[in-house]
Amino acid sequence: MRRPGEHLQPATDCFDGASGRKTGGDRDITPKQRKFVQLYLSNGMRATKAARDAGYSQKNVGQRGYLNLQIPRIKREIEKVLAKERKKYGVTRESLAMEYDDAIIVAKEQSDTHGMVKAIAGKAKLYGLDVQKIEDVFSLVDLLDDE
């Protein structure tokens, strides 16, 4: 039991509920962790909601959701599921960039400045460019649209 003021830590080991034995850090995730991963990936990657829905204590679901994302086994499981989905649907950075290019062209044809900037920002984010600067451009475009 935690003492007052003591914070949760990411689990490096966990206990197998069936046998009561300690499992190593490189083993499979627990059923509750697996449920957390499924809920996390199906709810728009909202860790607190996933922790709550997976059955973690209501007292610390926000902290537990964050800490679960720090556990290497859970990180690997999330990446494994995402990689499987990307392969299944043929999603690559290049295919997404082409979709953004199409959106930019459509927005230009429709004189939709905001849509065009939004597509450009999405593409920039896809390549890890500075999103804050892009958001500043959004603000400027919104101001210009209001005039």
Explain briefly what this protein structure is.
By secondary structure, the chain is mostly helical.
What name does the CATH topology of the largest domain carry? Arc Repressor Mutant, subunit A
CATH architecture of the largest domain: Orthogonal Bundle
Q: How many helix segments?
A: 7
Order of helices and strands: EEHHHHHHH
Count of the separate structural domains: 2
- End-to-end distance, in Å? 60 Å
Strand content: under 5%
- What structural class do the secondary elements suggest? mainly alpha
Strand runs, count: 2
What is the C-alpha radius of gyration, as a whole number of Å?
Answer: 21 Å
Helical content (DSSP H or I, runs of 4+): 55-70%
Largest sheet properties: 2 strands, antiparallel
CATH homolog superfamily of the largest domain: Terminase, small subunit, N-terminal DNA-binding domain, HTH motif
Question: Which residue ranges are poorly predicted, with pLDDT under 50 across at least 5 consecutive positions?
Answer: 11-26
Mean pLDDT across residues: 80
Report strand order across the widest sheet: 1-2
* Coarse morphology: elongated
